[in-house]
Design goal:
heterotrimer, A alpha/beta (188), B mainly alpha (303), C alpha/beta (181), A: alpha/beta, Beta Polymerase, domain 2, 5-stranded mixed beta sheet, B: mainly alpha
Chain lengths: 188, 303, 181
């Protein structure tokens, strides 16, 4: 497995210039690359290296760095290796290349990301709303969206749950755990 | 005038008997199913309660005229076939409208109900109803073949198309037709499994797949009419089988015993079976049951 | 004769008895609570001995069993199903999510109190309620029917304006036929 991973890193780094690789334990290799290169690297992985299964497309909201991170996870049935391709897009104007000509099922993930994070994909075929019906608020999975305030404002609340609190606060109170600085900012 | 009153009275009495016995059988079916599945089960009179409740529900559904007529067609079919089929051997309390050729008449009238139901279900516009009707009619094409073959064999063998004549044959010879023409009996009983629409032939109204199929838009009073028509029809069919193959009955107790013994066949076969798809059930009916029907016709023609 | 007051009383008693002992349930499996319905119906707890039985379509059902949380998306469908049911009809709210939101109390997409949007006759609390509590909920409903107090549908008809206002507040695009009973 180590040889296969090394060979994969070798192949990618020689073929693409501005890519950094990172090895993990187990059957996982990570690549970090600019967002313009994404269709190229995915095409290369699928056609030349046999990574023809798209497992998932994930999105991470880096609020402090004002960026979204999009992670493409692909899998090869012959190499039995997972490859994670990371890229960053600007948070203010999130536009990303659409990859559903490589894998048709990418459309589903992209529609979900469009609804949940508000990322625009160029030429995305999205006939109507996907998961959120009649949604009028901001994209709900963004970290600056205050879920609790929204729920309190929109849905009528039965009295008697005023002591309902975040489970993290209880844990911190009991264990005396230190909160990291960035988390304190978004503490409820 | 007296004749008409007599017949009317007889019709009312036979309807009441058929209704109560049929509903009780359905309740017993639920109870026995529950016992087989290691449950306690509802009481035997549960279906009476269900029928009262359904009749007391309000209905405010209107999809068109045929939708209201569909359940009525089934009811008419059940009552007419009940009136034609002789219930007891001696015709004292249950006068019936039998005539020469009523066996052929029955063959036709028993198809009338499902067809009316198909029209009614078609008008509701529910896709589940349409699928259920298609399946039901194809399945009917399956079991009608052995059923008609069995009856034709009897008609050829005894040169009659009257049920009363067939009963008299059995009374005179002292031998049930079940034993003197066993192949016809086998084919007819196998066709009966399909007529009752219990498992494995219950794909027509499967609640899990089709949302109860043809009656998925019918609730309340429509369902009440359908349930009572179904139980009357079940009793009529069982009585027909008893009349033709088991020598009829001299009094109600013997009739109930014989019909219940016959009813156990589809019921127990149903409880212990999974479900067939439509093409599987049609293939099943056109296999061994039709073969037995053919044997019965050969036996009737040659011996 | 039916319009006579005393005979109407007798008819009511018979009908209430029948309604009480023949409950056909449309289990709307919205949330995790749907998993508690099979054990309630099958041989361990056997709800059929009380006359409780599953119904396949809303037209045939008496009781709408809301099992668990309701998002605004499912609420729309549930209201549609409820309005297709025929009188007399009852609603059972099942699980704490229908009472006060349960563990989804701060979700952006989940309603927190079912009885603001639909008339609820009986609540069964718990997360999840075990089959025993489900059966006790049915027993409570039977009690209410016998006493003639299970009148959620009547309440809904009389206060339709209020319910509609609440429903339209959480469902902005209301493309549904109006309620015609």
């Amino acid at each position: 497995m180590e040889e296969i991973k090394k060979a994969a890193i070798e192949k990618i780094t020689t073929h693409f210039r501005e890519v950094t690789a990172e090895q993990h334990n187990g059957n996982r290799v990570d690549f970090f690359i600019g967002k313009e290169e994404i269709p190229a690297i995915l095409f290369y992985l699928k056609d030349e290296m046999g990574y023809n299964h798209l497992s998932h497309i994930a999105c991470v909201d880096w609020l402090e760095e004002k960026e979204f991170e999009i992670v493409y996870i692909v899998w090869s049935y012959t190499d039995k290796i997972k490859i994670f391709v990371h890229t960053r897009v600007d948070r203010e104007n999130p536009v990303m290349d659409n990859v559903d000509m490589i894998w048709r099922q990418a459309n589903t993930y992209e529609r979900e990301m469009k609804e949940m994070y508000g990322i625009e994909f160029t030429g995305l075929e999205a006939p109507e709303e996907f998961l959120l019906e009649d949604w009028e608020g901001p994209p709900p999975m963004r970290r600056d969206f205050d879920t609790e305030a929204y729920a309190r404002e929109k849905y009528w609340e039965r009295p008697g749950r005023e002591d309902a609190r975040d489970v993290r606060e209880t844990i911190i109170e009991r264990t005396g755990e230190e909160l990291p600085d960035f988390a304190k900012k978004y503490k409820r | 005038m007296k004749e008409i009153l007599y017949y009317t009275w007889g019709a009312i009495v036979s309807f009441v008997v058929a209704f109560s016995v049929g509903i009780t059988y359905m309740g017993l079916n639920r109870k026995i199913t529950a016992r087989v599945q290691n449950r306690y089960g509802p009481p035997w009179y549960q279906n009476f309660i269900d029928v009262i409740k359904l009749s007391s529900k309000k209905t405010s559904i209107h999809h068109g005229v045929m939708q209201h007529m569909g359940p009525a067609f089934i009811m008419v079919t059940s009552v007419v076939s009940l009136l034609v089929i002789p219930i007891l051997n001696g015709n004292k309390f249950f006068p019936n409208l039998n005539f020469q050729g009523d066996l052929i008449f029955l063959l036709y009238i028993m198809v009338f109900g499902p067809l009316g139901m198909a029209l009614g279900a078609g008008q509701t516009g529910n896709p589940n109803s349409a699928i259920g009707v298609t399946r039901g009619l194809s399945q009917m094409a399956g079991f009608e073949i052995p059923w008609v073959m069995a009856l034709v064999a009897l008609m050829i063998q005894y040169k009659t198309t009257s049920i009363v004549d067939l009963m008299n044959v059995q009374v005179e010879s002292g031998r049930w037709l079940m034993f003197s023409s066993p192949f016809a009996f086998l084919a007819a009983v196998m066709a009966m499994l399909g007529m009752f629409r219990y498992a494995p032939f219950d794909i027509v109204g499967a609640p899990q797949e089709l949302a109860s199929g043809p009656m998925s838009e019918n609730g309340g009073k429509y369902l009440f009419v359908m349930m009572s028509a179904g139980s009357v029809f079940a009793f009529a069919k069982l009585t027909l089988y008893v009349d033709i193959f088991m020598g009829g009955a001299d009094n109600l107790i013997i009739l109930v015993v014989k019909t219940f013994a016959l009813y156990l066949i589809p019921m127990l076969y149903g409880i212990t079976s999974p479900r067939y798809r439509t093409e599987q059930s049609v293939r099943w009916f056109w296999g061994w049951p039709s073969f037995f029907g053919l044997l019965a016709i050969l036996q009737a023609a040659l011996f | 004769m039916i319009n006579d007051k005393n005979s109407q009383k007798i008819v009511d008693i018979i009908q209430n008895f029948a309604r009480q002992h023949s409950i056909w349930v449309l289990a709307y499996g919205t949330g995790c609570g749907a998993i508690e319905i099979p054990p309630t119906m099958t041989s361990r707890y056997d709800a059929e001995r009380l006359g409780v039985r599953g119904a396949a379509t809303p037209r045939q059902a008496d009781v709408l069993l809301i099992t668990g949380y309701l998002t605004t998306k499912t609420l729309k469908r549930v209201i549609r199903v409820y309005e297709q049911m025929q009188d007399p009809k009852y609603v059972i709210g099942f699980g704490s999510c229908t009472i006060n939101g349960g563990m989804y109390w701060d979700s952006y997409n989940t309603i927190k109190a079912l009885d603001r949007y639909m008339p609820v006759d009986v609540y069964i609390n718990g997360c999840m309620p075990r089959p025993e509590s489900v059966l006790s909920g049915f027993a409570k409903l039977q009690e209410l029917i016998q006493a003639g107090k299970a009148d959620g549908a009547k309440k809904y008809k009389e206060n339709l304006e209020w319910y509609r206002t609440n429903q339209k507040k959480v469902i902005p695009n209301w493309h549904m036929p109006e309620y015609n009973w």
